Known about the structure:
By secondary structure, the chain is of the alpha+beta class. The protein has 2 domains: about 1-75; about 85-224, no CATH class. Helices cover about 45% and strands about 20% of the residues. It contains 5 helices and 7 strands. The strands form 2 sheets. Strands 3, 4, 5, 6 and 7 form a 5-stranded mixed β-sheet that branches. Strands 1-2 form a two-stranded antiparallel ribbon. Helix 1 runs antiparallel to helix 2 (about 35-75) and helix 3 (about 115-130) runs antiparallel to helix 5 (about 175-190). The longest helix has about 40 residues, at about 35-75.
Amino acid sequence: MKKQIKWITLTAVLLSMALFVACGNTKNGTAGADADSKDELIATLEEKVEELEADNLALKEENEALKIEIAELKAAGPNDEIIVEEEEELPVFGAEEDGTMTQVFSVVVKTDEPLLNKMQMLGDALSAEVFEGLSMDILDITAVDGKDILHVDLKEGSGAVGEKSWIFDYFQGSTGGQMTETALLETFLQREYGGLWIDGVKITLDGETIQFDHVPTLADTVLR
C-alpha cells in the first residue's frame, strides 16, 4: 500500500513539473528555443513513470502471492499442525597419508529419509568427492545374526586405458589401501551418529570378496 501511494504521488509530482515547465516556457516566449530541453524532460519523466509502473506491478504480484499464502494457512485450520521437514548433515570421510581421518564433504538428508536412501547419497558423494567417479552400488540392508548389515558392491569398470580402477588406484600400497578403507568404512558406518543406523557394512568388488594385501579389512564384514 505504501508503494502504491508513493507511485501515485510521484507520478502526480512529475506530471505537475512537466506542466509547469511547459507553461513557463510558453509565457516567456521561449517555447521554440527550449523545445529540446522540454523533450528531454518529457523523456526523463516518461522513464520515471515506466519505473514506477514496474514497481507497482511487482507489488501487485507480491500481494497476490501473500494472499495465496494466507488462504493456504487459513485452509489448514487452527488445529492442524504445520509440518516442517527436519534435515541432518552426514559427513563423508577421507584420510590423510598418515592415516588421520578427515571430513572431506557432507550430504544433507531428510531426517526421516529411508536408511537405504541415505546410504545411496553417501555412496554417490564418496564416488564423486573421494574416488574420482568410480562406481559403487548400494545393494541392500539385511539382517545377519540379528544385526543390520549394509552391502556395498564396488564396480571395477572396463579396465580401459586411463580409466580409474579400484584395484590399481585404490587397493595398492599400504598408505593408499589404508586411506581407501578409512573412507569407505567410516563414511558408511558413521560411528558418531546417534540415530537409527546400520550395525555393520560388507563391501565387495563386482560381487566378489575383496582379497588384496593392502585392504585386508575389506575382506570381512565390519561392525560399527
